Every structure is written in structure tokens, then in C-alpha cells.
From TrEMBL:
Signal peptide: none annotated. Pfam families: NodS (PF05401). It comes from Nonomuraea deserti. This is Methyltransferase domain-containing protein. Keywords: Methyltransferase, S-adenosyl-L-methionine, Transferase. GO terms for molecular function: S-adenosylmethionine-dependent methyltransferase activity. One of its GO terms (biological process) is methylation. InterPro entries: SAM-dependent_MTases_sf, SAM-MeTfrase_NodS-like.
Amino acid sequence: MKGLVSSPVPRIPELLHRTLFRTFSLLGPRAQGKVLHRYFDWWHRRPDPWSLATDSYERRKYRATLDQLPEGTYARILEVGCAEGVFTQMLAMTWPDAGITGLDVSERALGRARERASGDGARVRFVHADLLGYEERDRYDLVFCAETLYYIGRGDRLRRASERLRSLLAPGGVLVLVHPWPEAERLHGFIDGSPTVTKLAERVERDASRPYAVSVYRAGAGPSRPQMTSAVS
């Protein structure tokens, strides 16, 4: 995928944001978890702080993500980092018979997510936990992890988070990762190098200032080569 898209210079707020979370990743796992919980609760002191429900860029990204999915029946779906449940609501509308779980570190965000999903009954639930601390015996047919892995940190933590995502997949389950490009090459690297999943597709979208990659994997090794596309939003 290298060379398919240009890489604009990151904006100053984004550089500061990422520097902040690189600093957080130096903390121990428990301390980092507490800091992230407080940080995101602070951000969600007002509704929808990132305009996920109204921003046209976010809506295009959601649609591009769903367009990359292979056809199939997904009875159990997990969204890691669901925030206030905007994308969760889209998942509930797309798969009206699926059981859906949203996972996030902010209790404030989850409170609004539950209100948003109040009409979907018990099939949509939300859990207050981070990825590494989430305890779930069941496995999922479809797992989404978007704009989340750069909060985990580097090295061993990113490796453990990637292993956790793989472990949440049922046999034949599909994993979808969505992160900024070209940083996605690093963030998705442990999944790309895993012999236990097959990469089905990768799409790189170019936006005026925020390019991103959608990478799709299936649990289980396979000989097929992934479909790679580059598009302009």
C-alpha cells in the first residue's frame, strides 16, 4: 500500500494529542487505565465532543467501513471504543437481528450511548471497560476497532491489544480496524503479521487533512490475497 496516497503534514493539535498519549503509555497498565477513564469522561462532559453524529467526514468514514465488509450473517457484534454509540446505532440498523456489544472507557459516553440505543431493547448492550481488561467468554462474528489502538501505546502493549482482538473472534469471524493513514501500518502491524487471521481487504481513503485505512481480516489462515484499494473521499 505504500505510495498509493500522499501523507499530509499532521496538524498541530493532532501532534500534541499523540504526544500526550505517547506519554500516557509510559505509565503502568493500571495507572494508564485510570488516566484514560478520567480523560475521556472529561471530554464527554458535553455531548458528542468529536461531532461523530453530525460531521460529514465521520459519516463518510462509517459508510466506507461498512462497504468493506464481506457478505454474511453476523449474529454477535462487538464495537471496541464505541463512545456515545453513533456507529453502534448504525450497526443495529444494518443488522436488526444481531446481538451487539459496545465497549468504552468513559461511563459518561456510555450513558448517552444507552439513551441512543433505548429503542433497540436488550440486544444492544454497553460495557464499561478497556480492551485489555475486558473479560468475555463468548466470541464474536464481527469485531470493530476504530480510532482506538493509538491510545494503547507501543511495543508489547500494542501486541497484547492485537492478540486480544484476535482472541475475541469466533471461528471465521471478521475483524475490522480503522485508523489514521499512514500510522495504520504500524497500528495494524501485529494483526497483519499474525498467522491466525487472513487479510481480506484494505482500503485507504484520502481526505483533505485526515487520511485513514480500513483493514478487514477473517479468523483462520487462507491463501487468498487481500483486495487493496485507494480512494479519494
